[in-house]
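As agreed, record minuted below.
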Amino acid sequence: MTLLFKYLSMTEFPIRLAVASKDGISINEHFGHAKQFRIYHAAADGCELLETREVANYCLGQHADQSAMSGILAAISDCHAVFVARIGDGPAGKVHGIGVRAVSEYAYAEIQESLLDYSRRTAAGEDVG
């Protein structure tokens, strides 16, 4: 199964989405700086915060904590996508490698509106990223 196939053909709603946010209002945290991910269930008609998962942040200035990456990937592995303000190419590749979509298209936008829009577009078969 290709990843695109997982994203579009096998999407069952509600979908589980991870969000990196400093304030719980907007998608305003860089993937590597996140110390937690808010986990939502989302569908075209609504979304609900399920839990917050704590992680060790990956980016340490000019260095990366490789051991933290495995914890982050485990924390978001059951999600359809992770919403971030920014994500580097290397971490994005690792996220995609576990079958999770890295979404920065909604950077700095309000969480609930963004997740609803993403869910509607995904349900319509659009490739959002």
